[in-house]
Design goal:
Chain lengths: 206, 100
């Protein structure tokens, strides 16, 4: 009797610990929606584009969103602006030098002031942002939306179980801080680059 | 006779250049207007915003088509101005005033 009770309690404890375990979300989106939008003012119009080569993993615990960790990578060569000549300049030696700096990364170190309501967590993410080989610590206000059991619906295959995690955030960097034409062409192209992140990670359940 | 022929050729060439300038000017403005009168730089791909239904994420896709911008319009107007200026090089010489 005692043995049965012990097994029962142990099983329940194990199930509870598994249920509370952080979930790993993969940000290589099977639907190809993930992108970071960027924009910087210039003489005639803002130079705006997207970077769609997003990969990375984020570990999120719905019971403890403040403990979220992870890393998002962006393939530099995936940056696109509508004008192909500008695109060449952007990826070339003078600007991002994509062949030498193939990835732009953000590594989340801490999530402060996390407040959760209806599966949406607002917080300030602190992390290491690497661009053109320069790493700096930045703070980004983010919202994290946890969508349990939404993976199958999104893939139009309701029989597949799994969760989704949507990260949203906006921040501004100064291009000169990352060695992008520091002190040059400031009258033609603004020094500030606005970045807007809206990406979804998937955690299908086998 | 030869001088008259040269005068006629110069005059005709001048007219062709002036007409070319006018055509280029009107053509480039018309082309720019017809293609959407985009007041920014020319675009080789046009961004289209879509929304992912489940997540609500607004994402951008690109249509591969050319939209002329201010740079194309400026180049057209500059070319028209060049043709027009060139036409002045083929002015017919003014007849000398008759001596009393």
């Amino acid at each position: 009797m005692k043995t049965s009770l012990l097994i029962c309690v142990t099983s329940l404890g194990l199930a509870a610990s598994l249920a509370a375990a952080p979930i790993s979300f993969d940000f290589k989106d099977p639907k190809g929606v993930n992108a970071i939008q960027f924009s910087l003012d210039s003489v005639l119009e803002p130079i705006a584009g997207t970077a769609s080569g997003i990969t990375g993993k984020v570990s999120f615990d719905p019971a403890n969103p403040g403990a979220t960790t992870g890393k998002i990578n962006v393939a530099t060569k995936s940056l696109v602006v509508p004008n192909s000549m500008m695109n060449g300049h952007l990826l070339g030696d003078g600007w991002l030098n994509a062949p030498a700096n193939p990835e732009i990364t953000f590594e989340l170190t801490t999530l402060a002031g996390a407040k959760t309501a209806n599966n949406v967590t607002s917080a300030i993410a602190t992390g290491k942002f690497t661009l053109k080989g320069v790493t700096k610590e930045i703070k980004v206000p983010v919202t994290i939306t946890y969508l349990p059991d939404a993976f199958g619906k999104r893939m139009n295959k309701p029989e597949i179980k799994g969760d989704l995690l949507v990260l949203r955030g906006e921040f501004t960097i100064t291009r000169g801080d990352y060695g992008i034409q520091p002190g040059q062409n400031e009258d033609k192209v603004n020094t500030e680059i606005k970045l807007s992140l809206a990406v979804v990670g998937s955690a299908p359940k086998a | 006779m030869i001088t008259g022929f040269r005068l006629m050729r110069k005059s005709a060439f001048r007219s062709i250049l002036a007409a070319g300038a006018l055509l280029t000017f009107v053509g480039s403005i018309g082309y720019w207007l017809a293609m959407g009168a985009h007041r920014g730089w020319s675009q080789n791909r046009v961004p289209v915003t879509q929304t992912d239904e489940v997540t609500g994420i607004a994402f951008t896709t690109y249509e591969n088509r050319f939209v002329p911008g201010i740079d194309v319009l400026g180049a057209g107007v500059a070319l028209a101005a060049f043709f027009f200026a060139l036409s002045f090089m083929f002015r017919s010489p003014q007849p000398l005033p008759a001596t009393p």
